[in-house]
Amino acid sequence: MIQPWGSAPGKRPMSPLTNEDEQLLLGIARRSVEEALQDACVGHPQGVSGALLERAGAFVTLRNRGALRGCIGHVDPDQPLAACVAECARSAALHDPRFPPVTASELPSISICISVLSPLFEIRPEEIEIGRHGLYVTLGLRRGLLLPEVAAEWNWDREHFLSETCAKAGLPTDAWKRGATIQAFTTCSFGDKLSAVVETAPNTSREAGTS
Q1: What is the pLDDT of residue 13?
Q2: Which CATH superfamily is domain 19-118+187-198 in?
């Protein structure tokens, strides 16, 4: 699924990703998963350039025949995109607390989707566009994030989306009305060929696309 990609207001946009960039990132993610299952050390990706060296946040989602098997992301743009994707892919395979680690026997049926995040920007509730904006809600030490496709897949309106993001943060569902900081982001999302095959399978997890 390709999500709208845009820059954050007042911030320098990331360079657009080419089809070649996307394929390179998908390859990096799959190699990271394979190496993680072999208990090999995952080093920084080599031979990358351009947009893949720019600092950006990203999420990597793993599915097995349409069923969610892991989704881990990094919001802060504090490392090169290629390195961020490699790290998130490994963590999604091994360290998503909702699932047991991915096994080697699952690899042939594991699909990969990557969502590259724009910088965060503050947004008013009435400005949220379902299917375009992801949300990041914070209050004190609590934080919760949901990707744009989650609200679109579940047909949530703005208030429901905000409430679910607050719940993800472990906050009362109306915290967005009571002092929580609301930030948004857009994504550039793309998947491998296997991901395209299983995309029509029902997604039964509201947790997909969370930090």
Answers
A1: 64
A2: Hypothetical protein ph0010; domain 1 (3.30.700.20)
Between CA 183 and CA 146 the distance in angstroms is: 11
What average pLDDT does the structure give for the chain? 87
Distance CA(139)–CA(176), nearest Å, equals 9
Q: What is the mean pLDDT of each run of 10 residues along the chain (211 residues)?
A: 48 80 96 88 71 95 95 95 96 96 96 96 98 98 96 97 98 98 97 62 38 40
The model carries a pTM of 0.84
Question: Under a CB-based contact definition with an 8 Å cutoff, are residues 131 and 152 in contact?
Answer: yes
Record: fold of 121-185: Dna Ligase; domain 1 (3.30.1490)
**pLDDT number for residue 71:** 96
Residue closest to 210 by CA, chosen among 97, 110, 107, 83 = 97
Instruction: List, by residue range, all CATH 3.30.1490.150 domains of the chain.
Output: 121-185
Rounded to 5°, the CA angle 193-209-41 comes to: 70
- How far apart CA 137 and CA 157 sit, in angstroms, is 16
Q: Measuring CA to CA, which residue among 94, 136, 95 is closest to residue 119? A: 136
Q: Which of 150, 30, 14, 170 shows the shortest CA–CA distance to 86?
A: 30
Q: Which residues contact 102 (CB under 8 A, 6 or more apart)?
A: 33, 37, 62, 64, 69, 70, 93, 94, 110
Helix or strand or coil: residue 117?
strand
